[in-house]
Design a protein that fits this description.
With 495 residues, the protein is of the alpha/beta class. The protein is built from 17 helices and 22 strands. α1 crosses α6, α2 packs across α3 and α12 packs across α13.
């Protein structure tokens, strides 16, 4: 027997099959082979056609059934992970009335900022744990203000994963987690933030019915069966945004556990049971996958725009053509890179730096003594230091950090990067070989609510290795303090 997982990303649709009993991954694949297009009609806009997600999902499901050579009648549940914060609006027939305004679209920034000021920081922080910012509710307000004819046609708004679940089942539903991603959940009162919708002049009737993350959320209907080759009646039993789902995939459910991602951008996702926050503008807060009224577990998400992109830029613009070669050369350089420091913030304004854009910077470079190997190490250390800096922000916001779990991606493959973070934070980093689609597939079987058993399977199937803190912390701490002091000076001069 098997579970099927779908991960609806902005670059591709990922699909996975896992065994129900063991949780072992059978097969994963992507559609399309190249990245999906993102339409940008104006600067800072980003849109995708929801029907394209569905078309590619159908294609991916058909492919994985054929290539895995399984009997589709043995698929017992479906889990869905999806790109967060996007907006899909449909008419009464369930047809999208416009393209989805996706997560990286910035058109609603000023709308959210104005709401934050007019509603008040205290109310937003206490009730939403966030500024409305550029999230789903603000994007819907933009449609209302700028495309009133399309707003009038709108029957329901959805998150991207809600749309795929609807295409599979015919039922328009969402989750508490989905509403929290859109900043439409009131944590203080444990209900939808209808007062925010009222402020925006948005009808409360547009909000879909709410279902639990782990329950029968509808079954594959006849139309979806014809389009996917899945048998009718398979239940959708899980859906969650990609970052909460990534944490689930890494067995991060309890306060003190942290999921870290070191891709083009970096993400630190810390789980806590504390609802108070003083960092609603630098840290995003979402209902975690195991959130409930009785046990309000929150995911505190801190994003670092400039992370792996810094190291990739060095690879693309130096003599090396592989990260492995760069890592090997970097290991020959001592901790602290002989004084060279890199500020890896060349991927736009950094939310954790209060939206200041300082750019990428190479400091203290001596053209007689330093070479590319110094830059490789300094870049890895600079990205690692930015992770540590972000974790300090989280700790100052009443967040415990006891263990860090990360996927086996390019940054965490680096001994320098992982040792630096583990040593400065003083906690183990556990590395796992898993994907969001695999996590979503496994989560389809979590209707029993046994998170401990679920986590044990992840450890058994996916744990690759661990990095432990280095006993002699002093050289790491000295290098970090130099980097942090230079960052403070740059920020001071920017203000």
């Amino acid at each position: 027997m098997y579970y099927l997982g779908l991960d609806i990303g902005s670059s591709s649709i990922k699909v996975a099959l896992v065994e129900t009993f063991s949780g072992k991954s059978i097969m994963t694949l992507n559609e399309p082979e190249n990245e999906m297009d993102i339409q940008s009609l104006k600067n800072d806009w980003a849109e995708q056609n929801p029907d394209d997600w569905w078309m590619l999902s159908c294609k991916a499901i058909k492919r994985i059934i054929i290539q895995s050579n399984i009997d589709p009648n043995k698929i017992k549940g479906i889990g869905i992970s999806y790109q967060m914060h996007g907006l899909v609006i449909v008419d009464e027939d369930g047809i999208p009335v416009r393209n989805s305004i996706i997560w990286c679209d910035s058109r609603a920034v000023e709308i959210g900022n104005k709401a934050f000021l007019e509603i008040g920081e205290n109310k937003c922080t206490e009730n939403l744990l966030n500024s409305p910012a550029n999230f789903t509710a603000s994007k819907l307000k933009w449609v209302k203000d700028n495309e009133p004819d399309l707003y009038e046609k709108t029957y329901k708004y959805m998150l991207p994963g809600d749309f795929i679940a609807f295409k599979l089942t015919g039922d328009i539903k969402t989750t508490i987690g989905g509403l929290s991603e859109g900043i439409i959940w009131d944590y203080k009162n444990d209900i939808p933030a209808n007062w925010l919708l009222d402020y925006y002049g948005i009808s409360q009737k547009l909000t879909p019915d709410i279902v639990s993350n782990f329950t029968n959320q509808g079954v594959v209907n006849r139309q979806a069966s014809m389009e996917t080759n899945l048998p009718e009646g398979i239940p959708i039993t899980y859906r969650a945004g990609d970052q909460p789902n990534n944490a689930l995939s890494l067995n991060v459910f309890n306060s003190g556990e942290v999921a870290a991602t070191g891709g083009t951008s970096g993400v630190i996702y810390a789980v806590t049971n504390k609802l108070n926050s003083t960092e609603s503008s630098r840290i995003n807060h979402f209902a975690h996958v195991n959130y409930s009224s009785q046990n309000p577990i929150i995911g505190k998400l801190l994003c670092i725009n400039g992370a792996g992109i810094q190291y990739r830029w060095l690879r693309n613009n130096s003599v090396e053509n592989s990260y492995e070669n760069m890592n090997r050369k970097a290991l020959k350089i001592p901790i602290g890179s002989d004084g060279v420091t890199v500020m890896p913030f060349g991927n736009g304004a950094e939310r954790m730096l209060n939206n200041i854009n300082i750019g990428s910077r190479f400091n203290n470079l001596n053209l007689n003594n330093h070479g590319l190997s110094h830059l490789y190490r300094a870049a890895l250390e600079g990205v690692a230091f930015s992770f540590v800096y972000g974790m300090e922000i989280l700790k100052n916001d009443n967040t415990n950090i006891d263990v860090i779990r990360a996927g086996n991606d390019n940054l965490f493959r680096s001994e320098i990067f992982s040792n630096t973070v583990a040593t400065l934070i003083g906690h183990e980093i556990e590395i796992y070989n898993t994907t969001g689609a695999v996590g979503a597939a496994r989560a389809a079987g979590l209707v029993d609510g046994d998170f401990e058993k679920f986590g044990n399977k992840i450890t058994k199937n996916d744990h690759v290795m661990s990095y432990m803190p280095i006993k002699n912390k002093d050289p790491y701490q000295k290098a970090y303090e130099l980097w942090k002091n230079e960052l403070k000076e740059i920020i001071k001069n920017k203000n």
